[in-house]
Write a structure and sequence with these properties.
Layout: E1 3-7, E2 10-13, E3 18-25, E4 33-39, E5 46-52, E6 58-60, E7 68-73, E8 78-83, E9 92-99, H1 106-109, E10 117-118, E11 122-127
Parallel strand pairs: 2-11
Antiparallel strand pairs: 1-3, 3-8, 4-5, 4-9, 5-6, 7-8, 9-10, 9-11
């Protein structure tokens, strides 16, 4: 059973940066991609970014493209989300996700149903 533990959330002023980390453990040989979703009260969870091991493809939501970067430390089974130029609308609970699907084209990489494993979430608050 894969377990995901996020860290790095917190409070930051608009324009600032944060780096989220997600450490995967237990059965990571069955993980073929990881990513991030976010959620705010009253809204559905929304896709942020994902990275697929096969081919090294990365995907980003339009709202974060150019500001956020997802990258991994394969040896440590850790995925990071570097968030720059943060805006108040980026405030949310950020969830790390992992998939056991070995083939994940863009449209499916952005769908929450493609991910079997979810972390507990970490709060990011951006003040104006």
């Amino acid at each position: 059973q894969v377990q995901l533990v996020e860290s790095g959330g917190g409070l930051v002023q608009a324009g600032g940066s944060l780096r989220l980390s997600c450490a995967a453990s237990g059965g990571t040989n069955s993980v073929y991609g990881m990513g991030w979703f976010r959620w705010t009260p009253g809204e559905e969870r929304s896709f942020v970014a994902a990275r697929v091991w096969s081919g090294g493809n990365t995907y980003y939501a339009d709202s974060v493209l150019g500001r956020f970067t997802i990258f991994q430390d394969t040896a440590q089974n850790v995925v990071y989300l570097q968030m720059n130029s943060l805006k108040p609308e980026d405030s949310a609970v950020y969830y790390c996700v992992a998939t056991s699907r070995s083939f994940l084209p863009a449209a499916q990489a952005m769908a929450s149903t493609s991910y079997t494993y979810w972390g507990q979430g970490t709060q990011v608050t951006v003040s104006s």
